[in-house]
Amino acid sequence: MAHQHHHPAATAGEHFDADAATNAVGHEHDAAGAHGGGHDEHAGHSVAMFRDKFWLSLALTVPVVLSSHDIQTWFGYSIPKSTGVEYVPAIIGTWIFFYGGMVFIRGAQGELADRKPGMMTLISLAIVVAFVTSWAGTLGLFEVEIWWELATLITIMLLGHWLEMRSIAQAQGALSALAALLPDTAERVTPAGTAEVPIAELRVGDIVLVRPGARAPADGVVVDGTADIDESMITGESRPVPKQPGDRVIAGTVAAGGSLRVKVSATGEETALSGIVRLVEQAQASASRTQAVADRAAAILFYVALSAGAITLVVWWFLGDREGAFVRTATVLVIACPHALGLAIPLVIAISTSLGAQNGLLVKDRLALERARTVDTVVFDKTGTLTQGEPALVEVSGDPETLRLAASVEADSEHAVARAIVDGARARGVSIPTATAFEALPGRGARARVEGHDIAVGGPRLVTEMSVAPLPVAADWDREGRTVLHVVVDGMVAGAISVADEIRPESKQAIDALHALGIRVAMITGDSQAVADSVARRLGIDEVAAHVLPADKAAAVKRFQEGGRKVAMVGDGVNDAPALATADVGIAIGAGTDVAVESAGIVLVRNDPRDVVAAIDLSKATYRKMIQNLVWATGYNLVAIPVAAGVLVPWGIDLPMAVGAIAMSASTIIVAANAQLLRRVRLRRAPVANPGWVAA
């Protein structure tokens, strides 16, 4: 049996360590100015590194704080004086500065090398100012004792970065989970039986055995066996999907209730799983208007903080409070770090795109996701989107034997209408007798001999050719756009059958949900106006464009955009490509695991129109979190910088440096925690209980 691996693999044969994947996850946010533009201030850092540095620095900070003269005075105790004890804070504080603080200084060097100073530069300036000031006081250059504040500042900054990187690692957890779906090995079928091989050795055309409970090691097609496959981790579909010979299997999905022999069609980077992982990664890295605003604000904030720090130093120096001048300058630099502002958007994007992928919504373009919240009109392509895209039996009129006899004639035909009749008969529990002397009648229908009777099944041309009268109901069905077939038994019309494209059972729920959001719904179809109007009435569609050829769909979308309307186009991503590209938001539905739909900004894995509503819900929830984080991050700085600079000192409020560090770290943690709340958004829709309708 293929073993399930315990470390993520991006693709077959390209495994990487799980701890490294979690710990070495860097920041998504590389805001210009705020984070050094393209330079990642945490490049090469890990969650574990910040964690270890925090705990050791915390342990060393305790004796520094306890031996501080200020702390002893505040809490009314004293440590006996002895030779050299007064240098303990300086010695330990210096060690903390180099051990815990150098990570920030190295980050600042990288930012300055890129000529994009940001967060690390501000933190470094603050701890360097505090360090120099502390030694100046220790050496008696002036009266100041802030070793305990320096140690506390560095320790709190390490704690803030540790918690922040944990949040980002959690945001990327969905990608790690997807990458971890591939097993380490596969059971390749050989002439001698089966052989367990690393999945890196699989080649297209190999046959692999997937046992119950095992994961498919590669994409492929079932050649033998039946089983239910759990595809929830790929499509978001909670119900197992039955698989039989000829059905496709996706790498990473789990077999249950049976074993399968699968012919490999794609391995490694070519699998659908790898494509989805790449798609989500690209979406998280793609452009965002809201991110651009945050980037500019963070870049400006760096220079505001630097200017505020300089002004604070000069003002308090000339006011005669030299100790306060240095301490408040360092506090301003720390408290104004644009960390929360730089984290506000990227973390939300990382979580939203991963959340979408978990629910079968693949975001190819972040701008498309942002625009989805503004959509006021959703245009559906009818065939294959609102409907199943294939004919289904609708209604039977006339002799009770009509359906049984028609199904007998059509039993061996591969024509779509014939299959609809046969499938409809079987679904109704009809026993289908065997026909003989079958003869296809091109353009008219078919005939055969059934139980000693001559049976003919066909459309209007057959009725005319046989000089028989159609049933009166046929005219009504024809006006509704249905395909009408008459069943002629021994030269006499016995009954009639109508066939039409089946409406998806989820379509009505999707349209009702869009209406509840105040969104108008339109439909484009190449069918006749009668068929289009009939579907629109059944589903409650507001506008219809009928007789539209595939080449004209883009022009139809432009007409819907008239008057400034924001239009989302929902289609299959192939025939509808120009229309998807023309719309404000292009949504490819039912793409399955084909993530190469170039014209769509959002790809829906399932053939479920309700996922369009889910995409809009995700867009609104994402934007809401972005705005909340931006408001908090900017509002915090507007209040915190003046307080740190000492504007409230005349009223007895002087913010200690350590409190400033706590405030900065707290603001970052609040932004990260608020982004994590996005995980509470529920995108999955309840299963549809009622049977599907049929387009008339």
Description:
The chain is an alpha+beta fold and 696 residues long. It is 47% helix and 18% strand. The protein contains 25 helices and 24 strands. Helix 5 packs antiparallel against helix 11 and helix 24 runs antiparallel to helix 25. The radius of gyration is 34 Å and the shape is elongated.
Total helical elements: 25
Spatial strand arrangement across the major sheet = 12-24-23-22-13-20-21
- What percent of residues adopt helix (DSSP H or I)? 40-55%
Write down the overall mean pLDDT: 78
Based on CA atoms alone, the radius of gyration comes out at 34 Å
Strand tally is 24
Largest sheet: 7 strands, mixed
Short description:
The protein is of the alpha+beta class and 696 residues long. The chain contains 25 helices and 24 strands.
Characteristics of this structure?
696 residues, alpha+beta, six-stranded antiparallel sheet, 25 helices, disordered N terminus, disordered C terminus
Blueprint of the fold:
Blueprint: E1 9-11, E2 14-15, H1 18-23, H2 47-66, H3 69-75, H4 88-113, H5 119-138, H6 147-171, H7 173-179, E3 185-190, E4 193-198, E5 207-210, E6 219-224, E7 227-230, H8 232-235, E8 241-243, E9 248-249, E10 254-256, E11 260-266, H9 272-285, H10 289-318, H11 322-335, H12 339-344, H13 346-358, E12 361-363, H14 366-372, E13 377-381, H15 382-386, E14 387-398, H16 402-410, H17 416-427, E15 436-441, E16 445-450, E17 453-458, H18 460-465, H19 473-479, E18 483-489, E19 492-503, H20 507-516, E20 520-524, H21 529-539, E21 543-545, H22 553-561, E22 567-571, H23 577-582, E23 585-589, E24 602-604, H24 610-645, H25 657-676
Parallel strand pairs: 13-20, 13-22, 20-21, 22-23, 23-24
Antiparallel strand pairs: 1-2, 3-4, 3-5, 5-11, 6-9, 6-11, 7-8, 7-10, 12-24, 14-19, 15-16, 16-17, 17-18, 18-19
